[in-house]
Amino acid sequence: SAPQPLTDLSTDDLAAFLAAQQAAYADLVASGLKLDLTRGKPASAQLDLADGLLGLPTGVVDAHGVDTRNYGGLEGIREIREMFAELLWVETEQVVAGGNSSLVMMREVLTDLMLKGGVDSERPWSAEEKVTFICPVPGYDRHFTLLEWFGIDTVTVPMNEDGPDTAAVAALVANDPSIKGIWIVPTYANPTGSVVTLEVAERLASMPTAAPDFKILWDNAYAFHHLTEDEAKSADILSLASAAGHPHRPIMFASTSKITYAGAGVAFLAGSVDTVRWYLGHLGKGAIGPDKLNQLRHAQFFGSPQGVRDHMVRQRAIIAPKFDEVDAILTRRLGGLGVATWTKPTGGYFVSVDVLDGLAARVVALAKEAGIVLTPAGASFPKGDDPRDRNVRLAPTFPELAEVTAATEGFATCVLLAAAEKLAG
Ligand code: PMP
Questions:
Q1: For the structural domain made of 6-46+310-424, what CATH number should be given?
Q2: What is the distance in A from the centroid of ligand 1 to the CA of 103?
Q3: Which among 46, 112, 250, 370 is most buried, taking Cβ atoms within 10 Å?
Q4: Percent of the chain's residues with pLDDT above 90
Q5: Is the dihedral angle over the CA atoms 404, 408, 409, 411 positive or is it negative?
Q6: Could you say which DSSP state residue 4 is in?
Q7: Source organism's superkingdom (predicted)?
């Protein structure tokens, strides 16, 4: 028979259900698991796919005659910039290839904005009375902690399936000049898997803002990280903004952290030519050039933009079964009971689960007690504060499939126990 929502159960049936969940949870704790579903890291099998890098580069001179062993070339070597310009739908002149972390580039950009102001700023952001950022939630915890570290205020808007709630965003930016920017993970967002549609991107690119130097920090960390054959194409935010008369509004970030090596990839920044010049001008005060040898190694390893896409198909073969497993278990264990909803992402690294209001922290604590480490409840919200205490982020890529199975089964047990406690209490 079809599962019945727990709220439909009689008092006696609910008591019996609670007792059954308590027994299941006791068994789970007794089984002595030691599992971790916290961080979105590639599994070793995924890293192995890129081990061809270890035998590269062949030669040390790039296609344009640059000796990559030497100083210089702050913007990165031309062939890797060309390759990712094509992949990200921008011009080569609009792309910087940097070090191994796009998050570092995001911090640099915010530092430059605070200390110097952007190309379209009236003054440094630090000279403003107040700086506020719009944070679509749930979102990426490191975006939020970065803002907190700068003392930048946050205001949240809902992250919908098609991207941030544009009506809420447009209303916020229209009248308040302290609102200087918004974080967006446009493709397969962390953690919801949302993909920003062309319509949403157009609205964000063209909306009137009280701040003349409003920034869209477009973090396309998962641009090519498809989990199905239906490959989402990221909206071309730079062209849209340019066409709307706001060429300096978006600054785009991407990296090969989850394409090749998470700790030794290549990161990218893209923006208007003026933005690129602005960024490099500041970068040049502290660097003479990036690790061009690693960039050359990556250019040779991929061979072409298609090489990147082909590589991601091999990545998908390793991780898609893990996402399928999470969905199958949640559907079988929780489906129809009215205790949780969850995303079925078509790309990216996460599954976002909403349990009943007020239960996320309880579920995470129960899981911890049972040896299953989950991302702390609230992590996907600024200041770690999920006002409804309901969101839990699952990251199934790193563990082996058997561990994903055990951890998700255990998680489902914790969700059921917490829900039964709440409803019976
Ligand atoms: N942005 C998002 C949305 C991420 O999820 C991550 C990794 N968890 C990063 C950026 C980090 O990127 P990088 O490794 O290039 O610093």
A1: 3.90.1150.10
A2: 6
A3: 250
A4: 99
A5: positive
A6: P
A7: Bacteria
Residues with CB under 6 A from ligand 1: 40, 101-103, 140, 185, 190, 219, 221, 255, 257, 267
CB neighbourhood size of 128 (10 A): 17
Closest listed residue to residue 142, CA positions, set 107, 111, 114: 107
pLDDT digits (tens, 9 = 90+) for 257-291: 999 999 999 999 999 999 999 999 999 999 999 99
Ligand 1 centroid, distance to 102 Cα (angstroms)? 7
Closest residue by CA, ligand 1 atom 1: 221
Closest CA relative to residue 348, chosen from 18, 22, 42? 42
The 10s digit of each residue's pLDDT in 287-339 is: 999 999 999 999 999 999 999 999 999 999 999 999 999 999 999 999 999 99
Tokens matching residue 197? 């549609």
Phi-psi region of 35 (alpha: psi -120 to 50; beta: other; left: phi over 0): beta
Return the residue matching tokens 């039964």.
420
Q: How far apart are CA 239 and CA 77, in angstroms?
A: 23
Give pTM, 2 decimals.
0.97
Burial profile 85-104: b = 16 or more Cβ within 10 angstroms, e = fewer:
bbbbbbbeebbbbbbbbbbe
Q: Establish whether domains 6-46+310-424 and 73-303 are of one fold.
A: no
- Its ipTM equals 0.99
Mutate to test the pocket of ligand 1, among 96, 194, 255, 268 (most ligand atoms within 8 A of CB): 255
CATH of region 73-303: 3.40.640.10
> Best of 225, 257, 258, 291 to mutate for ligand 1, by most ligand atoms within 8 A of CB?
257
Q: What tens digit of pLDDT does each residue of 356-376 get? A: 999 999 999 999 999 999 999
Q: What residues form DSSP beta bridges with 347?
A: 226
Buried-exposed string 277-314: b where 16+ CB fall within 10 A, e elsewhere: ebbbebbeeeeebbbbbbbbbbbbbbeebeebeebbee
Give me the half-sphere count of Cα atoms (radius 13 Å) on the Cβ side of residue 281: 12
> How is the chain split into domains, by residue range?
6-46+310-424, 73-303
Whether 105 and 267 have beta carbons less than 8 Å apart is answered as yes
